């Protein structure tokens, strides 16, 4: 038996794409890793070109930089003359993240957020029913109603009564308000593993998915370290970790406050984290303990989980760590909230979030 033989794998370039498009894909990936630093991304791209021959004699990195400016992906029109990415680049980064994470998903049939209820909505079905008091004139199916009138009264004495009217059913579409919490504590880059970049990609993909496919849904994004604050979708490529502890309580309090402002019945929280809560804010001071599950911090966190359960806001926790000690905390947190928990690798994080999001779309929480 010869066994397995391994050779260096060199992926082929997409021949249908131009040299610019192939380089643009790599550049956008580097923009996420460098948190929006154009100069650093171009420096990395130059080194990659030197090592892997990404360009050819007819088209070099200098030509690519010129095209980035001419096509509106970067600009140096600022006080310092530094390269900055534009809104076009930010949108393209989100689109690339969506294709990378959710690209294999098949397009669904008609109706995206179906429930078991029918009624006033904008997704027409093939089902009919009799007219009922309270139905609007716009819901009446005239062709079917006239056909009933001919059958019931004949052609010579044609008349249309209430009993002849038929209504075409429409699917009731649920609308959901989601808050996505992203842990930006220092542990997200510890031990030689970059956890913040995949978290950013997932957030951008989810944002692009909701805004394009589910425009009636809402998505609020917040980050939490020592404190918690809301960020805009356009800020995601620039997101970076800091020298922070993990104040899960501050994140949950802000998430609940954001959801209170939303009028949708369906509400949920997604939390991406890799560690245990280690911080509380008491007045202007911080109470910190990084050496274990501090009872004072733990109790406050569990109390908020219980509050979310009482107001029907499930929390889905995506724990991107495999420490059994941390899993025990997440298990208790999930039980108190009656939510869901996933112990995900970084690679499978996107699909898990999408499936949970889609599942919650099908029910009134």
Please, could you describe this protein's structure?
The protein has 365 residues and is α/β, with parallel strands linked by helices. It folds into three domains: 19-85; 118-171, no CATH class; 176-361, Rossmann fold. It is built from ten helices and twelve strands. The protein has helices at residues 19-33, 38-52, 61-70, 87-102, 142-153, 196-213, 248-260, 295-310, 324-337, 349-361, and strands at residues 74-75, 84-85, 114-130, 166-173, 176-183, 218-224, 228-231, 266-273, 279-282, 285-288, 315-319, 340-343. It has a six-stranded mixed β-sheet with strand order 7-6-5-8-11-12, sandwiched between helices. A two-stranded antiparallel ribbon has the order 1-2. A two-stranded antiparallel sheet has the order 3-4. Helix 1 (19-33) crosses helix 2 and helix 7 runs parallel beside helix 8 (295-310). The radius of gyration is 27 Å and the shape is flat. It starts with 18 loop residues before the first helix and ends with a helix.
Short description:
The protein is of the alpha/beta class and 365 residues long. Helix content is 39%, strand content 20%.
* Total tally of structural domains: 3
CATH architecture of the largest domain: 3-Layer(aba) Sandwich
Question: Which structural class do the helices and strands define?
Answer: alpha/beta
Q: Can you list the strand order of the major beta sheet?
A: 7-6-5-8-11-12
The count of strands amounts to 12
CATH class of the largest domain: Alpha Beta
In quaternary terms, these chains amount to single chain
Rounded to an integer in angstroms, the radius of gyration calculated over CA atoms is 27 Å
Average residue-wise pLDDT = 81
Q: What gap, in angstroms, lies between the N and C termini? A: 58 Å
The succession of helices and strands, N to C, reads: HHHEEHEHEEHEEHEEEHEHEH
**Shape call:** flat
Model regions low in confidence, pLDDT < 50 over at least 5 residues: 104-122
Helical content stands at 25-40%
Strand content: 15-25%
In CATH, the topology of the largest domain is named: Rossmann fold
How does the major sheet shape up? 6 strands, mixed
**Which homologous superfamily in CATH is the superfamily of the largest domain?**
von Willebrand factor, type A domain
Q: So how many helices?
A: 10
